[in-house]
Amino acid sequence: MQRKSFSDMQCPIARGLEHVGEWWSILILRDAFRGLTRFDEFSESLGIAPNMLTRRLTALVEAGLLERRRYNERPPRDAYVLTERGRDFRPVLLAMLAFGNKHFPPDDREVQIVNADTGERVDPVLVDPATGRRVDGPGYQVLTTMLANA
After folding, report:
1. What gap in Å lies between CA 53 and CA 24, rounded to an integer?
2. Over the stretch 110-129, which tens digit does the pLDDT of each residue have?
3. How far apart are CA 94 and CA 79, in angstroms?
4. What's the CA gap between 77 and 83, in Å, rounded?
């Protein structure tokens, strides 16, 4: 069964899902933020089939979320590192972590976001940098506007 493509949709959520909506992709990005870069590291962490991992890494490189860097010529071996676009996905992962902790917590451990200086637990929130107010609260809505050059 052919998966529907969201690339022609005018919704930024759908267009983002086109590149990161497959669950292996999100877990690969999670592991990249944890410092993993090599094929064998991703494979061991995820338990993913090699052919699927190859497809997902290729798709993430093509989407500009990861960059392939050769670290060995013989045999050829590449590392996969986050690009600026890939690093911009971090707040999304942190929000997913908080959502998972709240609604689907693991039975045997807790994954927390902590302040590196104090060790205090923090919960991510999305705020308007101009006002410091949470954008998921009253007074904020999502609008669709046409761009002048469209």
Report:
1. 8
2. 888 999 999 999 988 888 89
3. 24
4. 19
| Domains detected in the chain | 12-87 (1.10.10.10)
Cis peptide before 50 (omega within 30 of 0): no
Contact predicate 25/59, CB 8 Å: yes
pTM for the predicted model, two decimal places: 0.83
CB of 124 within 8 A of CB of 94? yes
SS3 for 127? Answer: strand
Determine what percent of the chain falls in helix, strand and coil, rounding each to the nearest 5: 40, 15, 45
Characterise 40 by phi-psi region: left (phi > 0), alpha (psi -120 to 50), beta (else): alpha
pLDDT tens for each residue of 35-89: 999 999 999 999 999 999 999 999 999 999 999 999 999 998 999 999 999 999 9
Which token pair is 60?
């993430």
